[in-house]
Amino acid sequence: xxxxxxxxxxxxxxxxxxxxxxxxxxxxxxxxxxxxxxxxxxxxxxxxxxxxxxxxxxxxxxxxxxxxxxxxxxxxxxxxxxxxxxxxxxxxxxxxxxxxxxxxxxxxxxxxxxxxxxxxxxxxxxxxxxxxxxxxxxxxxxxxxxxxxxxxxxxxxxxxxxxxxxxxxxxxxxxxxxxxxxxxxxxxxxxxxxxxxxxxxxxxxxxxxxxxxxxxxxxxxxxxxxxxxxxxxxxxxxxxxxxxxxxxxxxxxxxxxxxxxxxxxxxxxxxxxxxxxxxxxxxxxxxxxxxxxxx
Length: 295
Prior knowledge:
Layout: E1 2-4, H1 7-14, E2 23-29, E3 38-40, E4 43-50, E5 68-73, E6 77-79, E7 90-96, H2 105-109, E8 124-126, H3 128-145, H4 153-178, H5 180-199, H6 211-218, H7 222-233, H8 237-253, H9 260-266, H10 272-283, H11 287-294
């Protein structure tokens, strides 16, 4: 594995002139790093213009756009494009060090761009118009890099990067829409997974399913899973599971001998008082009243 620690080192490895020690836009033209994988010790954004075999290594399917693909890497993340090469044969690499963001607005909320924690297989696939928009953002960054460094450089560069990330947020939401059928299948699998979790009696130990657990079972990253669930349902996993658990509680309360205390214990609620308050807050009826009204 090749560990590239600085933007300058990255420029040297890929044959690019260093215009700024903390930011660079590098043209990827048949890069040969001579390694099996690469780790960037800074933020790296790949705009992939060419990917063979239908871009299977980046998760593109027939229902996705195919003009270009974007992959976002957090500092310290290990990347390998495919068995054929560490980096794509054609495209661009935007590299910027976290120190660039010092005293900029982007530093305070770059963690909100959750796609930096997506897997490579959860890449963003762009239409021709979207690719043109991203290319324009890169051109603006390149133009600023040609300017002599002064007191405004970091602020202007960070704002150009932030604008590009905002566009990527919009395009990812569009991709959730074009993947609507696939996402519905993911939600069906999630429901099956949560039903099995409830039936397994693990809730009796007060261990709730985590985003990491669900994402792993569904073959997704936790960040992508959280964003997909929020986009499709408007809820976090805790909120989604709470409603599902409540539906199960309703059915259990209708069974003879299923007292609120028993249901609360089986479904992992801290105590019957908490369960009763939550049940009434959501349904408008206390558990015992619910049982009597349905019998």
